Every structure is written in structure tokens, then in C-alpha cells.
Amino acid sequence: MMHHDLDSIALASQDGVVTGMSDHEETHPLYGTPAHSLRMTASLDQLERESADNLLWTTDVSKTIRHSIRSWAAQLGLAGFNPECTEVRLRGSTVDVETLVSDISGKEDGMLIDSLRRNVSSGKARLSRILLLPPDSLEGLKRLPLQTDRHYDFDRRDLSPETIDGIWQGASGRQAILDIRKNMGMVPDTLLPGRYFVGAVEANPNEHCWVIEPELMRGENRVRVLHDQSCLYDPVRTQGERQVEIRNINGIAESLKDLDVLVSVYRTNLELFHCDHQRGV
User: Fold this and answer.
1) Residue 251 burial (CB < 10 Å; 0-12/13-18/19+)?
2) Is residue 281 scored above 70 in pLDDT?
3) How far is residue 271's CA from residue 275's CA, in Å, rounded to a whole number?
């Protein structure tokens, strides 16, 4: 591949391995939820290394090097890798990341953080991909209506510790999440403060990979709630549906009517993806 091609396509690493997690609990500055600092290392192949070298010289690394939490964990409420709380360093063919992670689901069972910590201790926890997004790979913005006929809930207790361990360690989480996911039907009118919501958008399965950099819009106005910072997916693999994770961080109820999700569309080459990227969430 010619050097200039690296400036025009988005790339993604294999899932990074978590190398450390703090026992100290702090408050996440964006979500207001309990959070823990975490260290992760992702390996880069030659093309990814060259792209990362280029991007680390750009003026705003927070916009060009992003992160995609594995979809099963994001749907269950795991959040993190926000640019405001993340530091990235390139070391040879690896990327070292320090960030904050938090369970924003509102459920107080401790399941996600406890299971993640257990697998960090074993040195096998795989959490997030590094996204390399050269400015010239951005094709533009597109609005996707928030679907009104479906939203999802999960009983996390239906996942056995052995199943969770296997998924943290790299197994596909697609079927496991589908087995416990319940379609709750029509989207409610409002989302109360501090509550968590998993909705859906539909994308054209014949188009490129996307990175959802979440902006919830009502008309031309941004709705100030938070959800997954960025998520790479292939619409062909997901049959066009993508989940949208939202938490109301305001002190008042927010309407869920007439919402669009404003997404960024990036040019990429599916043939360059690792086999891990073809295996589900």
C-alpha cells in the first residue's frame, strides 16, 4: 500500500489486552459514576504502525486515535476511553493506553467491573480496539433516526462467570448477548436522570464501516446525554442494526422523541481487518 493511502483509510487494531486496573475508586468526571483507572496495550501490524506514526504527529490525537469497546460490554453498560480521560503512547509496535472505565448501567451488582478485574489479574482481558482515523478518511456525517419500535434490556445474572470469562478472553460475545437481550418494544417517552438506555439505529448494510461518534440530535439541537464514545462496526456483519448506548447525565428527564443519531462515516478497507473483526461482538 502506498504511503498516501494510509492517510485516506481508517484502520483498527486487534482487541487490546488490559495490563492493569486500579483498586482505587474515583468518580468519572463525565458520567458521575464510580470509575477505575485502567491500562491497556494493543499490538499494531506494520500498516497500523505506520498510520499511528503519522497520526501521533497531528495536532489533535484525541480525534484521530479513538477506541471501540467490545459491543457486548458496551451494551451491558461498560463505558470509558473518553478523550478527556485517556492518554495514548506509541511504543514500537504497540500502543499503550491509560483511561478510566465505569459501569454506567445504573445496576449495582458490580458484575462488569468485578469480572473485568478478575480477568485483568489473569492477564487475558480483551476490552477495546484502537481506531486510527486519518482526517482524510472521513467521508462525512449522516443522520440515522433512533428506532422507535425497539429498545433493549439485559439480565446480566443470566451470564455465567465462565461465559463472561471466555468473552473477556476473546471469545465472541454476540450469541451470549443475544441470549439475554430482551426487546422491550416501543421506546419510552422520556429518560429519567441517571438512567441507562439501549436503543437502535439502522444503517445501509452495503456501505462502508462506520464509527459512531455519538451526537444525539433533535432537529438542529444537540441533546446533552452521553453514550458510547466511538464504536467501529461493519454494517454487513451486523445486518444494518447498531445499538446505541445512552445515559442521561442531566438533572431533568430528557425526551426520547424525534431523535436522530449523527454519525461519522469513515472510508476503510475490510480486507485489511484482522480475522477477529469478522467474528461478531
Assistant:
1) exposed
2) no
3) 9
pTM listed for this prediction: 0.87
Residue 51 and residue 9: Cα distance in Å, rounded?
A: 9
All three cell numbers of 84, joined, read: 478527556
What local confidence, expressed as pLDDT, does residue 230 receive? Answer: 54
Q: Helix, strand or coil for residue 52?
A: helix
- Region of 103 (left: φ > 0; alpha: ψ -120 to 50; beta: rest) is beta
Using CA atoms in the order 68, 19, 121, 70, what is the torsion angle rounded to 10 degrees? 10
pLDDT at 4 over 50: no
Is pLDDT above 90 for 157?
Answer: no
Contact 112, 44 (CB under 8 A): no
pLDDT in tens, 11-26: 888 889 999 999 999 9
Let me know how many helices (H) and strands (E) the chain has, helices first: 6, 21
Write the CA distances from 228 to 75, 107, 185, integer angstroms: 9, 17, 22
| Residues 227, 233, 235, 239, Cα dihedral to 10° | -80
β-sheet bridge partners, residue 255? 190
Nearest to 173 by CA among 182, 164, 183: 164
Q: Which three cell numbers stand for residue 103?
A: 459501569
* N-to-C CA span, the chain: 28
110: left (phi over 0), alpha (psi -120 to 50) or beta: left
Could you give the CA distance from residue 124 to residue 247 in angstroms, rounded to a whole number?
A: 29
In angstroms, rounded to a whole number, what is the distance separating the alpha carbons of residues 232 and 209?
7
Residue 3 has pLDDT above 90, yes or no: no
pLDDT in tens, 48-59: 998 888 888 776
